[in-house]
Each structure stands twice: as structure tokens, then as C-alpha cells.
Amino acid sequence: MAMKTLYVLALTVLTAVGAFGQSATVYFTNEITPESLVKIYEAMGVTPKEGQRVAVKISTGESAQSNHLRPEFIKNLVQKVGGNIVECNTAYGGSRSTTARHRQVIEQRGYGDIATVDIMDEEGEMMIPVTDTKWIKHDAVGSHLANYDFMINLAHFKGHAMGGFGGVLKNQSIGMASSSGKVYIHSAGSRTSGSIFNNNQDSFLESMAAAAQAVHNYFKQEGRDIVYINVMNNLSIDCDCDGHPSTPQMKDIGILASTDPVALDKACLDLVFNHQNTSGDNASPLVSRIESLHGTHTVSYAEQLGLGSQQYTLIALSDVSSVTGTHSGSALRYNVYSLDGKKLLTNAPSLDALAKGTYIINGQKRIVE
């Protein structure tokens, strides 16, 4: 079959055009291995400068049964960049609510065997400015943030009992906040201690977006930088902060990475919402969890703030071993909708199955001939 010809239309599209006015690049591999994690990081082509201090932000997990990213999986990447693993204490009475207990968890999980682990709010917090002051007036993060010039936001993408889902935006907002800063975000700026529950769900989600932007802006100052990775495995409806998460009903998808956190979380959401369910591989519970808590609003609001774009191009690493930080060895993947919003193709390697016509392809309105 002849290759399809695409024409981009300069018209209003169903998928919102990003705040950056252009499509972001999101890299994808269906291989979930220590080696593929390094390769997809390299594909972004953004690396720390010599002498820069590197933070790798993960979640250390609430219990051994949680679905957090294991040390053996992240070791190669952390050691390649000479990074410190960074975390902050939690705002609820779990196994990581104090520095002393958190350090016990870190050693029990084996993270201390692969790198230095920095609990960033061990010595208090620092305030960084937020662009959006609708709910929160600052972002209270661990004071050790000042010790770093470059960050890899390495998140496990999954469901969440309060935010609907957790990806890089949550890992950067709640995950980077001090213990009191977490309460401040959860309560949409109304308190810094006490309950993390909030009856106004959208105010919480919008506060997360504002806090994520604050950290992004901090690392986008001259001389610093930040990149983002989501690992889509163990796709439970529950977060790694749950010590007894529900068993995943959906099979692992892969690893995605981008320099744009909004595009990255949106691409992961698309892969969940557009998933073709089969026996033993059912995305419906995760979709229901996200929808019930209006979880997608975090992404759309982050785009409104200018943090990134929901419009993206998905690049699949066709041969993981050959990628050396450029687009060499990559293949374009397509997510396609009809003009009335019906899903037609998900993560497709080509457009050959489409008839001539007009479609929404990777967030842009295009003519296929």
C-alpha cells in the first residue's frame, strides 16, 4: 500500500493546542528493563553539564508490597548520571512520615545500596515562587532542593486514590513538597498541618499543577535543567503510597519520556483511555479511578498555566539498543480520532489503515490522502 500523505490544517482542533504552540516530543518503548530506561533517557538528548549535581526523584514506596520502582531497575540510570536519589517525607502517618522511619525504609528497600539517598526536607523546607496564585501562594519544597542543578523526574505511572492518577506532575508537586508543603497543596493553600483531605477536588488538582510548574521553573533557570520519565508498569488503581495496593488489571505498557511534563502525562493517559481491553488486560478499573476523581484536569490545567502542551508526537524507539541520544532508530507512532471524537488507532506504527479524509492525528487536525 502506498504511503499516506498528510496535510496539517490551520483550523481549530478537538484536542487543545498546547500553550507552547507546537507539538511536544514524547519517546516510547515497550521494553521495561534497566537498559531501556537508560536508552529512553539518552533519546531526549538532555544531559547534565560537567560538575552539575543531579537529583533523581522517585517514590520509595509505602511498603514492600507497593508498586514503586525497584532499585535494580533504576540503578543503571542513577549511576550513569552520578545522581542522588531524592525524596521527601510524607504528610500522613505511614512508614515514611519521619526522617528516621523513612531512612529505615530506604535501607530496607535497598536504595542505599545503589546511590546516596537524600531526604530533602530532613533539615526543613524552602519556598519557591508559583506563577499561578489562585490557590497556593508559594511551593514549600525540601530545603535540599537548593543543592541540585539537574533533575530526572522518574515516576511510576499508576492510579491514585486522591488525584485519580500519579505521573510526573504528581511526582513533582506532592513528591517534591515538604511534609507540611504536601498538606498545603492538598488543602489548596488553606493549611500546612492536619488533614490532607479536601472537599474541593479541582482546587487540589489545580494546586498540584501550580506546584509542578514551580519546580519546573526552578530547574529551567539559567544553567539548570530537568527531564521527565514515566514507567507504565504495575498499573494498579492505587498509588505507591498505598501499602496494600489493588492488583493491576491492566498489563504493562512501557516507558515514556519527554522534556514536556504535560505532554508526557497526557500521552500516558491516552494509552490508558484508548486501550483495547482483552481478557486479562483490562484498563477499565484504572479509567474509572481517573474519571471518578477528575484526574485529567491536572493535565489540562497545567497546560493552561503554560507548563507544557497536550499536543504531542509519540516517537517509538524501534531498536532500543541503537539509540544514542538522537532520533536515529526511531519510528513515529500515531493516535488517531475521527472528527466526532471516535478513537480509530492507538499507538499505530502507520496510517495505512486509514481511508482518505480528515482526522485528529497526535493532537493535530490533518488531511490524509
Order of helices and strands: EEHEHEHEEEEEEHHHEEHHHEEEEE
Number of strands: 17
* Helical percentage: 25-40%
Q: What general outline do the C-alpha atoms trace?
A: globular
Overall pLDDT, averaged?
Answer: 89
Q: What's the oligomerization state?
A: single chain
Beta-strand residue fraction? 15-25%
Structure notes:
With 369 residues, the protein is an alpha/beta fold. Helices cover 25% and strands 23% of the residues. The protein has helices at residues 34-43, 71-80, 99-109, 168-173, 179-186, 201-219, 261-273, 284-292, 297-304, and strands at 6-8, 24-29, 54-57, 84-87, 117-119, 125-128, 139-142, 150-156, 158-160, 164-166, 225-232, 254-258, 312-317, 330-337, 343-348, 357-361, 364-368. Strand 4, helix 3 and strand 5 form a beta-alpha-beta unit. Helix 1 (34-43) runs parallel beside helix 2, helix 6 packs across helix 9 (297-304) and helix 7 (261-273) packs antiparallel against helix 9. The longest helix is centred in the middle third of the chain and has 19 residues, at 201-219. The chain is globular, with a radius of gyration of 20 Å.
Outline:
25% of the residues lie in helices and 23% in strands.
Give a topology summary.
Elements: E1 6-8, E2 24-29, H1 34-43, E3 54-57, H2 71-80, E4 84-87, H3 99-109, E5 117-119, E6 125-128, E7 139-142, E8 150-156, E9 158-160, E10 164-166, H4 168-173, H5 179-186, H6 201-219, E11 225-232, E12 254-258, H7 261-273, H8 284-292, H9 297-304, E13 312-317, E14 330-337, E15 343-348, E16 357-361, E17 364-368
Parallel strand pairs: 2-13, 3-4, 3-8, 4-5, 8-11
Antiparallel strand pairs: 1-17, 2-12, 6-7, 9-10, 11-12, 13-14, 14-15, 14-16, 16-17
